[in-house]
Amino acid sequence: MTATPFPHVLLTGFAPFDGESSNPSWEAVQALEGEIIAGHRVVARCLPVEFGASLHALRHAIEELMPSLVICVGQAGGRTQISLERVAINVDDARIPDNAGAQPVDEVIVLDGPAAYFTGLPVKAMLAALRSSGIPAEISQTAGTFVCNHVFYGLMHALREQPGVRGGFIHIPYSPAQAALHPGAPSLPPAVVSQALRLSTAIALTVQHDVRIAAGTTH
Ligand code: PCA
Question: Which CATH code of 3.40.50.300, 3.40.630.20, 3.40.50.2300, 1.10.287.130 fits the domain covering 8-206?
Answer without folding.
Answer: 3.40.630.20
